Amino acid sequence: MLLLYSILFMCISSLRAAPTCEPNSFCYSPNESTKVTLTRTGDSLNLRIYDENSAIRKVHILQKEGKDVLVDCTNKKEDGKTCEAQLTVDQFEKNLPISIKLSDSQTSDPISLEALVPPAQEGLTKQQRRQFSKAHAILMIFGWLLFVPSGFLFARLGKDLFKEQTLFGSAVWFQIHRAANFMGVVCMCTSMLCIFISTQWTWKGTGSGSKYWTEVHTDLGVISTVLAVAQPINSLFRCGPTHSQRIIFNWAHRCVGIVAYTLALTAIIIAAVQFKRIWNEPLMELVLVCLPIAICLALTIAFTFLESDRFRTKASFGPHILKGPAVFWAIGVFFCIAVALSLLVVNGYKNV
């Protein structure tokens, strides 16, 4: 315990003896026992001198043409080693450098007061960019792992649900399918906006010179988002249900959706495995990311078998009885997965 207190005391002493030099500060250390810091805040100057040997009594701040501002350090703070003085920029000639003189043999290099003004912050801070990156990840998670799989399940298994009911003039399954996918597209587009804001509108895909997996992730994400946006647009041009060419639209719509989801899932897997700064639990996140597609495939295969003539002739119940519970159970699981992954993303960047 005594050792811990000793280490803590040494750390505190070292912090006091060697203040960090901020962008708006000038630091001068003629020897190990003396530390001088001049900090500018607006038009105010704060001169802080740490003198371990308490040998410094007067400090001169010099400019060319004979300008000399005297700082009296005979009255130090309670520790007897620290002297502070408040000055203003108006006390000095503009555009002329200053030097801090502690003694005849200890004079700092010239420093311009204009150099102590930190450059204006351009764009977002690192913390703000990270928040937008997290928003990008979370929106993509909800778009691709909740809304899109939910829309798919209602299109594949939900047609037998609410058969006798309509919603705004159309079948309930179709309206839910359309609404879920529309919400997914909104999440994706908003997510893309967030990541472009985070990168300050800098392209990170092929040809950008970024890291390999960053380029691949970006390319796959952009292509999948474009295909996802194209889905509701091409639906506006579909022919009627009884039209002879309707089967072409149906298969084109399915294929575009499958390709988009495959590319998006690959992009998310790359993020979960390669972007360890924001995705801190790669194995857990990989499993969670793959669960929605695994559930969709399992339910599709299961109900394809249950709806086959071979099963129907032997079964004592219809498969439609199981569709409702299966669909709503799966959507509940999708929601839990999206929330769990989002919480993991929120806790990202902890060790950076």
Automatic annotation (TrEMBL):
Keywords: Electron transport, Membrane, Signal, Transmembrane, Transmembrane helix, Transport. Residues 99-306 form the Cytochrome b561 domain. Residues 1-17 form the signal peptide. The keyword Electron transport applies. The chain crosses the membrane at residues 137-158, 179-203, 251-273, 285-306, 326-346. GO terms for cellular component: membrane. Pfam families: Cytochrom_B561. SMART domains: B561 (SM00665). CDD domains: Cyt_b561_FRRS1_like (cd08760). Coiled coil: none annotated. PROSITE patterns: CYTOCHROME_B561. It is found in: Membrane. This is Cytochrome b561 domain-containing protein.
